[in-house]
Design a protein that fits this description.
Elements: E1 21-25, H1 35-49, E2 53-59, H2 64-72, E3 80-84, E4 86-89, E5 92-98, H3 102-112, E6 116-119, H4 124-136, E7 140-143, H5 148-151, H6 161-173, E8 178-180, H7 183-191, E9 197-199, H8 216-221, E10 230-234, H9 243-253, E11 261-265, H10 271-277, E12 282-285, H11 289-297, E13 301-304, H12 314-320, E14 324-328, H13 331-336, E15 343-346, H14 351-363, H15 365-378, H16 384-401, H17 415-418
Parallel strand pairs: 1-2, 1-6, 2-3, 6-7, 7-8, 8-9, 10-11, 10-13, 11-12, 13-14, 14-15
Antiparallel strand pairs: 4-5
Length: 421
């Protein structure tokens, strides 16, 4: 049974459910810059604002995390963090895996007594958390956020794709429910044997990402004169993002639009190869906060060539910033873009159609600008509050499904846990 098919956790009286004690497990967290880390922080922040108690279990990230967490910490008051050792992820050294023994987590949770454990990633730390929760009889929910099985073919280990998919399926089937960001992904995973799937989308901060942050000074730093069109792409500079297709398309477009500029925001292992293939591109590096928002707003067109996204947070960020979007018809783009109104969608993998769509909007600046205005308008009701509220409701439903009394934190636990046995 899907989680969203369960009854209203508020019950027939309509009274709001009591706060939960939630152990939230993730192997990526700000200041790491990726969609999983940033959206995980948003969900945790939303849970805290709704009065829930959250224990965050994540790997140490080194000295760089301290300053960033001081900057982010204002919205995470009351968060209890449990840091564990970590090491770089193979083939993806900018991300880390966490390590802990299930027995250690079991003893810790016997004391803290969570109502539920939520795992946002599927690495060793999450596996230990799943084992510990199962020993204690605690309900567990999970997120499917990253197509790691699809990534394998971009790192010359395509033979691992089936093995990784089998692991992910086995992992998620051991939880009480898995949340996915789009209905298309829910259908795809269901066809591959995943069960108990529910859709929880993503939000966008329309006060941060807004056309009002457009900066002529920033455009000038890119070498863009008034009237010069700027194509922007934001994301990790890595093989799985299909950026070579974007660079190829841009070089083709330069024949008719020699004043066009390409700006790549992000960093990663493909940076030097991209620089060699397209020395005219501007490599802006990683950006965050208002600085990132200014980069979006100062461009004219968002070009997103990725074929491996489960969602793609950059899609609503670009649209909220007033940019028309050209993307393949999948993930968030398929859900948010109305073809011909606020952007253009092309068949997945059709590089020629992708290039032609970019050319169409470069050739018709007035149409591009009208689409950008429509993109901004379509994001006005895509805030985080409703998204977090749905996430919260699903957590309550899982606790109810396991026979717990949400109004009493102790009664939500097995007797052995309450006694500390």
């Amino acid at each position: 049974m899907r989680m969203d098919a369960l009854p209203d956790p508020a019950g027939p009286s309509g009274a709001p459910p009591r706060p939960l004690r939630i152990a939230y497990v993730t192997e990526t967290w700000p200041p790491e810059v990726n969609g999983v880390a940033l959206s995980a922080a948003r969900f945790v922040q939303g849970l805290l604002q709704r009065g829930h108690r959250v224990q965050l279990l994540r790997p140490h990230q080194g000295e760089g995390e301290r300053m960033a967490n001081r900057q982010e910490g204002a919205g995470l008051a009351g968060l209890e963090e449990q840091l564990v050792p970590g090491c770089p992820l193979p083939f993806y050294p900018q991300l880390r895996m966490g390590w802990s023994r299930a027995g250690t987590l079991q003893r810790q949770w016997q004391q803290w007594q969570p109502d539920l454990v939520h795992v946002a990633t599927e690495g060793p730390l999450a596996w230990a958390a799943l084992r510990a929760a199962r020993r204690l009889g605690l309900p567990v929910t999970s997120d499917f956020r990253t197509n790691f099985h699809a990534y394998s073919r971009h790192y010359r280990i395509g033979w691992l794709q089936g093995i990784v998919l089998n692991y992910l399926r086995a992992f998620h089937r051991r939880t009480d429910g898995t949340m996915v960001p789009t209905d298309a992904l829910r259908r795809e995973l269901a066809a591959q044997g995943f069960t108990d799937l529910s859709v929880v989308g993503r939000g966008v901060d329309t006060t941060l990402f807004t056309p009002q942050r457009r900066s002529q000074a920033l455009r000038a730093s890119w070498g863009a004169q008034p009237g010069d069109p700027v194509l922007l792409c934001v994301g990790r500079l890595a093989a799985e993002k299909n950026l070579l297709a974007l660079v190829s398309a841009f070089r083709t477009l330069q024949a008719c639009h020699p004043r066009a500029r390409l700006v790549l925001v992000g960093d990663g292992p493909l940076r030097e190869e991209l620089r060699v293939r397209c020395p005219q591109a501007v490599f802006a590096g990683q950006r965050s906060g208002e600085d990132l928002a200014a980069h979006y707003a100062s461009a004219d067109l968002f070009a997103f060539p990725s074929l491996t996204e489960t969602y793609g947070n950059v899609t609503p960020e670009a649209m909220a910033s007033g940019l028309a979007l050209v993307a393949f018809d999948q993930a968030a783009a398929s859900q948010l873009v109305r073809h011909g109104e606020n952007g253009l969608l092309v068949p997945p993998g059709d590089a020629l159609a992708f290039c032609r769509a970019l050319a169409e909007l470069l050739d018709h600046p007035q149409r591009r600008q009208a689409m950008g205005r429509q993109a901004r308008e379509s994001m006005r009701n895509q805030g985080w509050d409703e998204v977090v509220a749905r996430f919260e409701a699903l957590l309550h439903q899982v606790v109810l499904r396991r026979g717990a009394n949400v109004g009493n934190a102790d009664s939500a636990l097995p007797a052995a846990v309450r006694s500390g046995a």
